[in-house]
Amino acid sequence: MIIEKTIIQSNNQIAENIWKMQFESPQIAEEYAGAGQFVNILPNDDWNHPLRRPMSIASVEDSTLSIIYKIFGDVTEALSKKKVGDAIELLGPIGNVFTKWDSNVFPILIGGGVGLAPILNLKDQCHVADIDYATIIGAKNSNEQFIDHDPENKIYLTTDDGSIGETGTVMVPLDKIITKIDNPHIYACGPEPMLKAIHDFALKNEIPTQLSVESYMGCGIGLCQGCVINKNNKAPKEHSYHEKYSLVCLDGPIYEAEDIYFA
Amino acid sequence: MKRKISILPKNSIEIGQVSFNNPIWVASGTFGYGTEAPELVDVEKLGAIVTKSITLHPREGNPPPRIVETSSGMINSIGLANIGVDKYIDEMLPIYKNVSTKIIMNVAGTDLMEYVEIIEKIESVSSDLVGFEINISCPNVKKGGMEFGVDNSMTAELTSELRKRTDRLLIMKLSPNVSDIVSIGMGAQDAGADAVSAINTVVGMSIDSNSGKSNIYTTYGGLSGPAIKPIGLAAVHKLYQKLSIPIIGIGGIVSSNDVMEYILAGASAVQIGTANYRDPGTGEGIIDELNQTVENSKWDSVKDMVGKAKLLS
Lengths: 263, 313
Ligand SMILES: Cc1cc2nc3c(=O)[nH]c(=O)nc-3n(C[C@H](O)[C@H](O)[C@H](O)COP(=O)(O)O)c2cc1C
What we know:
Radius of gyration of chain A: 18 Å
Helix content of chain B: 25-40%
Distance between the termini of chain A: 31 Å
CATH superfamily of chain B: Aldolase class I
Strand content of chain A: 25-35%
Shape of chain B: globular
CATH class of the largest domain in chain A: Alpha Beta
Oligomer: heterodimer
Strand content of chain B: 15-25%
CATH class of chain B: Alpha Beta
Structural class of chain A: alpha/beta
Bound molecules: flavin mononucleotide
Strand order of the largest sheet of chain A: 10-9-8-7-11-12-15
Number of strands of chain B: 16
Largest interface: A-B, 35 and 44 residues
Number of domains of chain B: 1
Number of helices of chain B: 9
């Protein structure tokens, strides 16, 4: 893990409110361990917003690293105003990686909202490794989608309003395809309601599932103890530490579904 | 990210019998146990590291969400998540033998005996700790959840019980959520504290206007960061008028100018908290800056300017 001053190579809108940014980041790229890891980004020099923002890594190619971000506040708004050539500080790479995706399993990759980056990253990895997989991407409407609905190639889009792909949540196509697949493994990242639905589905149907969780983060390096998630520990000791809660920055962001729960 | 600096010993300071290379420390709860950050920064440069609060038993802390950013600050409600004193003794004290930075252990308890037991346990083993900072902003379960730090007789009683049990530095950390911080500081001083530190976080709340929900599980949390600097400065200045023991300034420090303000208000040393989350090297950077700022100022050293703020009335 390093703090690296990087240079922005591109910063483009790819769908409504969704942007992609590329950085020249040789040191972090060198340490990068795989899809699922994130960087903690510092968009502003001023102290109106004291904290960094965790952003999942969408790709790493040579010394170029990319993120995909959704504009939902001042900080991401400021990020979208950054120009090619501007310097920006990244802390990373942080976190663990998606595992067990290989030709022995059939990965179902599910992404939604701000959780697209690690899923698209894993999608690229599966593609390169020539593994057969399915992708489900959920969004509010067609304006927020930027890849094609292509059921032939097992790419399913869903929108709340049905403006593209299937109407409803990612659970709609998931329900349909799950029965037709041998040895499915789910890999998901997205807003909490989506992760909760997938979590409950995975446990009910006993499908191995890895969830990349989002958590409000103070530091990203274990100092603040802020970014905890509930661990699925039925019988913690009377006095315990990290048995009921797990630190997303140090132990996550990726968890097996059965190890955590959403309150 | 390592930065090179030269330590100017003229900015060294003394608290009680202990001298510190410089007045820049890192605050409790923002630097772990002092063993986590070395991968990223050169902790040896820091005047001291104050550990996160240690309690008698391990603690899980509060359910999430525990933190939220607010304008120029953040609110936290971690709930004193920590490994507990026994594990601290087994796992952390040995590591400190190889760290040249001075380590101050922050202690928290829910009744007087808990604080006493922790100090006794630490004093029964050999360690390189230079002192204790006592977090008195914890609800006292025996007294109906009232914080030790809101009552000067409770603060004095706690201080004197701990004073009997240790010769190491005893620093009482004061809460700003009180009607009269000076009387509590006086209570600590009269009962034998070597110094007071001020301030801990300020009670705050944050609500998501879209969902209508509280952003913090426990509803109220502690506000920290630049937003509280004026509150910290006023507390330090008020304490400095009445106390003769050193005051350690805390609250919203992000630059060497902030440090200068605290020292002018009456602080002998300062602690950097929230800024470490953004960059754990903040303290290191400030040490560099401060040496330069002092060099360029009319003062000979940090010690010279303590409490020298010019008032207009
Ligand atoms: C996430 C977080 C955890 C903290 N934990 C502790 C703690 O365990 N014990 C303590 O005495 N103070 C704790 N503090 C308070 C800080 O030590 C400091 O007093 C306060 O944050 C004000 O300084 P700042 O504005 O520089 O952050 C914590 C602060 C934060 C933000």
